[in-house]
Structures are given as C-alpha cells and as structure tokens.
C-alpha cells in the first residue's frame, strides 16, 4: 500500500486525542535505541512530515524506517487502529521510490528477482537440503511450500518437516520450481524489483501448486504463510486451494501420543503467524496434548508477544540490535522455568537459538516439528 | 558576560564529549519527533507552522551526566527540557525556545524496597514497569494515570499525575518520599529522606512535584508503595440521566464510602466503551465503581451498598466478577478519547478531540452545577463533546471536537474551552487537577493563583536564575505568545 493511502491512519494516530505513546510500550527498536525517532509514534510523525513535504527523503529518514522489526506489536496496542507498522512498511516503499533503499536490501531484492531467494544463493541449490533417496510423487493432495529460509539457512527444519509429514502419513510433494514467496520484498518496500513484481512471483507459485494437483499447501514459515494468506489476495492472486501453516495441519491430522518424561516448555509466537495472522492456539493445543509436556506462558504472549528480533529485515540490517531483542525474549523464557522454548518459524528458531547459544543460556530452542519428532517417536 | 549560545553543530560536539556520540541526536529526523508532546502532535499535524525543533536531544544514563549537561547549559544559557515518554497533555515538553531535550528513558532503574514499603526508581522507568515489579512482590504504586502503560515515573512526579485510583489512594504527590534533583547550575541535591514520615524542615521535594521540569531535573525518585489489594470488583451502573449518575456518586461519598474508583461517564463515553467490544446497556450517564481490599466480605459489602444507591436512582447494573474482564473494562475506560476518535464523522477530515483541554478540579458540592453549565454551553455553541472524569475527587474532563480546516469551528472550540476553564475557577475550582499547566493553561494561571503566581516566579528565579529550565511553561516568565492559542490559531 502506498503511504499516501494511509493518510487517514496517520491522522488518526496524530490527532491530539491520541498520539498517546502506547505503542512505545512494546517496541523492540525503542528497547534498542531508546529515542523517539525509533518509536512507532515517532516514525508515524516523520511520515506525516514526509507526506506534507516539510521533511525531505534522506538516507537518515530511510534508516529510521528500516530500523524496525515490523513486528506489529504497536498495531495491537494502538487504541485508534492506526497500524503504525503498515505505515512504516509503506514509508519504506516511498523511500525506495525516492532512491533511499539501503544497499543491503537493494542487493537482496535484485537477487530475489534473478535467483528467487534473498539469501544471495543460486536458485539451483534450492532443494539441496532434500534427503538423498527421498522419492516424492509428481502429484499429491498436499504441497509443502518450503520457503527460502528453510531451503537455504535452516535446512534441518525443512528435512524435519518432511520427516514429520511422512511419519504422519500425509500424502505430499514439493513444488517443482518454488520461488521466494515475496515476503522479503514486501516487507522492505520492494513490491517490484527489476521488472519482477511480487504479483508475478505469487502467480508463479500458485501455478506450481496447481500443477501438482494439490488441494492444500502447507508452509512451515510464517513469513510465507502471511504472504500466501495475507498479501497475495491483495495483489489479486487468490489461491483456489487451502493454505495452512504446519501447526494447523498437524492439529487437524492429529498427533500420536508422545514418549519421554515430564518436561516444561514455553511457546514463542512468531509475529507473522500470531499477531499478523491470528494463529495462536493450534501450536499450544498440540503441545498441551502431549503427555508429560507442561506448557507455561511467558508474560508477553499471543498478541502481545515480544518479537525475536529478526523480522522486517532487522537482523540483516542491525545484527547487534537484533540480538538484544532476542535476548529480552530469552530472558523472559528463562524466567518461566522452561527447559525448552518451542517456536514454529525458521527465522525465530535461528535467531533465538543462535542468541541462546552465544549467551550460554541453558535453554534449548526448538522448532515444533523437531520437538514433535523427539517426543512422538 | 556569558559565553554565546553555540550553534547546533558545536552544541552536538560538546554534548558528545559529555555523554558519548551514541547519546546525542542532532539530525532533523531525530529532532522532529521531539518537537511535540501528546497534546501538540495533532496541532502540529494540522498547523505546520507550529514547529519547535530542539537544537539537540541528549539521552543521559546517569546523574553525573545530567549534572555535566546542566552545568554546560547554564554556562551557555541553553534551554533544557527534561522529557519522559512524551505523554503530557498540556504542552509541557515543547521546546519553544529550542535548546536541549533531555530524554531520560535510559535512566530507568527500578529498585523495590518493599521491606521499607518503598521503591526507588529512575525518572525514565515507566509506571507499568514499576508496578509489574511491585506487584510481583505484593505491592503497587496506585495513582494509575490514563497513560499508565506508557508514562514515566519522572513525568508523573513532574506533573503530579493521577487517575482513577486517586479518590482512595491520592495523587503522585502523596507517595513521593524523596527526590534526587539536579539544579540548573548542575548541583545535585537530595530532597527528603527515604522514610515514610518526616517533620524536618521545609518539604522541598513537594516544591518539585508538579513543577514540570522548570526548577530542576529529577534523576531519582523514592516512592511509598501500598500493599496490592488481592480483591478488586467492578460494577458499571448505567443511569437514565447524567444527573442521576452524579447524585448517586455524591450519595455514595456522602455515606462515608471511599471506593477504589468512582468514574463518571456520559452517553458518548458509553458508546465509546461499546465500540471497544463491550455490550453495555444504553443510557445517558454511568458510573464505573471499583471496590478493592483484602477481605471478601468487606469488598462485597462496600460494593453492595454502592450498587444499592445506584439502583435507587434507576440504574441498570453490570457486575464484573471476572478480574480479567474488569481489567479490560478499565483499560477501555482509559482509551475513551481514542475510541471517540473513531466515532468522528469523516475519516478524511478527522476532528481533533481535545481530551486534554479541560481537566478542572472542583469542590464536590459544585460539580453538578459545573457539568450542567458546561453541557448547556456545549449546546449553545453547537459543540460535540464529552464529559467524563474522576467524580470521586472532583476532577472533570471535557473533550470538545472541531474540524481543523474550519477557522470558525476552531475559534468556537477555543472559546468554549476558555469559558469552561473560567467557569471552574469561578466555582472555586482549579484549572487543572492532574494534567498540569504546561503551555496551554498558562494564560489562566494568574486568575487562579493571583499574587501567589508572583511568589512562584520568585522561586523560579531563585532556583533557575538564567531561566534555562523548560522555558515558557507555567507562565513563569510571563505568557509566551505561543500559548495564546487564539492568536496562534488565527495566524496558523
């Protein structure tokens, strides 16, 4: 959405009855920098100045807009529904049009257009994670859409998801030519790059699924889930099959009673899955149903869940700050007394696991599929 | 002769030497969000000329750094505006003369000392964080302002903030035991002791409570805390008329009951609550009642008696047994102004709701007269507005709306607010019960205080002889032109 189209939202935020600062209370970037220009309220005010023309686009303005995880916690506390994260995302698009997209994102955006992933990896390696000897049918009722992060950076997660689907007896296959879902481009203000738009990418992926004759697409990445369910329809691409996150499919199919002793776990809501798409309860119901598993909540959960620090290009642009955000989350998890933090997102998994290891926290960070394989045999 | 005020670049470099590069902001993109507070954002949004950029923003993390900055600012006569979360409602934080905005967010230490029934906090600690820490230990800091989730302890002390809990528990002032303050010249003083009672000398800490950053920078606060009441019950009583709601409130207080909260809502406020997802009965007025305590029987009997009073005046009662639901209802109450924004007629030209414009305090016996007259004034001027407030402590909020594109409506709203403030003063009230004076109420301060305002000015001159601390506020140096909203609106 263009920034101009959000002027009503900006007005709502800045009208003198509001601009209340509630959004400050749950903002990861305020936690990192502690200054107003890096709060949702401050950024919306800057957008208003930009729209009025009394603030010129600049690298500094761009930097303030990109130093945000787009976690959307501000959206959930905003009493007027101004949706600051949408405004910030739109401002990124405007700044990109004006030539102020930070180099890191530009480079990765171009790579998506060429090689269909933002990780600067060759497209031909997309399925290099596939276990040797795995044979998948040409057509199947379910397609597992793997996503770039699991394909290139969290390959184990992709393998485990495949293993879990097999053990559950799900008749599935993969896309023959899977492309990036476009989430990276949408979140960094690059709806179209080098002539390739996210709409084209969406149509390509849609066609790939259709070719497999699937009635269901299952994704293990919440970023992909939001793209398929939240963003594609807005681009005029309406899937004529159901799109489920893995947690939803698992709950529907039913999980076999587990093994292992008593264990206390806590669940971290990925922003894209929870706050952005409203999937909160499925993973909790799965975990709670497992014998011996005690699910405990962190103080900030569901719509108020604290971000892991890797969303919205934040980890790419601000690695140090993103670790601070992750650390806050891990501290919260430790205080629950949980031995394991379970999540259901490759980004969150990577971010929280790496930070926990770097800090020497004795807290295991696991993806739900990994946890289930361990518990369910 | 004092050295000349340095330019922005030189100022930035000097501050960087004092607090480090990462704690100084001088770029326009960083300064702009500090040019307004909660109140001003909307006005600035519609009247772009109203733009007051600071020369620099500094984010100190220690008292020593604050002291160094003030010594420097004093030497160069540079204004310093201390700032918390920017939730102030009367223009307290606007850098009308530029200078240094001192964002105290990083001074957010919280040190509960519940064995002494107190807590020590940095000015940047938020009220919500403070109470989270205290509640884990069975205590709380009760004033509960509407901005409870975001506002800071320093800001609360600086404005003597309070809210719906004040009827039983009092305002921030009642809890301040001791303050560490950096004076204009950089001297660090401790006012008061960390004890719950003291009869030792002038209570200078009280001079700084509500001083809005005009006398010094508060760098540490010691607050008395209360045991957290384990039982909290809420009832909403919806009445056929606002007057019935009022008279019931007065009868409750007249019976000697001191509820934990006693809030008045008018018809539009009820609508706003329903917009927040509740299904409350329709009515012309309502009371939100809260009873709290340690003993079920006491809480139940107190609430029962209050409900009986309300039923006697034809109220429909909505009891909230579930604490989670009660919490949500109180949260919705705090967001009434925001919810009202959604009611406004055209999304393309959203009207401003001046929640903050009228925040008067009245003797309880004059409240009904006041509200009736204000409602009549609204009718007469054709103003859509709301009336609500903490009726238990005589605090009335009146919000009025206008379309900013219409000079006639702007002027009508301004004159209405002015009349509403003057009416409160004529009835023996105060022009602000909890939001403070800042810029916007400065023009009326003399009407309330008379010659005592000159005494305040003398104290200001004594403590801040160069006038560098938050200049332009509280009419201490006269009334700044910008505060004369009439002229500004016309020229805006």
Helix tally of chain A equals 18
Fraction in beta strands of chain A: 5-15%
Low-pLDDT segments, ≥5 res of chain B: none
Count of extended strands of chain B:
19
The total strand number of chain A stands at 10
The largest contact between protein chains, plus residue counts on each side, is:
A-B, 37 and 50 residues
Strands of the largest sheet of chain A, in order across it?
2-1-5-6
Distance between the termini of chain A: 46 Å
Main sheet summary of chain B: 5 strands, antiparallel
Helix content of chain A: 40-55%
End-to-end CA span of chain B: 37 Å
Helix content class of chain B: 25-40%
Which descriptor suits the 3D outline of chain A? globular
Q: Whole-number average pLDDT of chain A?
A: 93
Order of helices and strands of chain A: HHHHHHHEHHEHEEHEHEHEHEHHEHEH
Main sheet: strands, sense, barrel of chain A: 4 strands, parallel
Gyration radius of chain A (Cα, Å) is 20 Å
Residue runs with pLDDT of under 50 for 5 or more positions of chain A: none
Give me the secondary-structure category of chain B. Answer: alpha+beta
Structural class of chain A: alpha/beta
Entry summary:
Chain A is 47% helix and 10% strand. Chain A is an alpha/beta fold. Chain B has helices spanning 8-19, 28-31, 38-46, 63-76, 127-135, 153-159, 166-169, 204-208, 242-254, 267-275, 296-312, 323-334, 336-343, 367-381, 407-426, 445-449, 452-463, 485-491; strands at residues 24-25, 56-58, 80-83, 100-103, 110-113, 118-121, 139-140, 176-182, 188-191, 217-224, 226-227, 231-239, 261-266, 285-293, 316-320, 352-353, 358-361, 385-390, 395-402.
Commentary on this structure:
The complex is a heterodimer of chains A (377) and B (492). Chain A is of the alpha/beta class and 377 residues long. Chain A is built from 18 helices and ten strands. Chain A has helices at residues 7-14, 28-33, 40-52, 59-66, 73-77, 84-97, 103-115, 148-153, 155-167, 183-187, 198-211, 222-231, 246-253, 281-289, 314-317, 319-335, 346-359, 368-376; strands at 142-145, 172-174, 192-193, 196-197, 216-219, 242-245, 263-267, 293-296, 340-343, 364-367. In chain A, the strands form three sheets. A four-stranded parallel sheet of chain A has the order 2-1-5-6. Chain A has a four-stranded parallel sheet with strand order 8-7-9-10, sandwiched between helices. In chain A, helix 12 (222-231) links the parallel strand 5 (216-219) and strand 6 (242-245). In chain A, helix 1 (7-14) packs across helix 3 (40-52), helix 9 crosses helix 18 (368-376) and helix 16 packs across helix 17. The model of chain A has no long low-confidence stretch (mean pLDDT 93). Chain B is of the alpha+beta class and 492 residues long. Chain B is 37% helix and 19% strand. Chain B has helices at 8-19, 28-31, 38-46, 63-76, 127-135, 153-159, 166-169, 204-208, 242-254, 267-275, 296-312, 323-334, 336-343, 367-381, 407-426, 445-449, 452-463, 485-491, and strands at 24-25, 56-58, 80-83, 100-103, 110-113, 118-121, 139-140, 176-182, 188-191, 217-224, 226-227, 231-239, 261-266, 285-293, 316-320, 352-353, 358-361, 385-390, 395-402. Chain B has a five-stranded antiparallel sheet. In chain B, strands 1-2-4-3 form a four-stranded mixed sheet, covered by helices on one side. Chain B has a four-stranded antiparallel sheet with strand order 13-14-12-15. The longest helix of chain B has 20 residues, at 407-426. Chains A and B meet through helix 1, helix 3 and helix 4 of A and helix 2, helix 3, helix 13 and strand 16 of B.
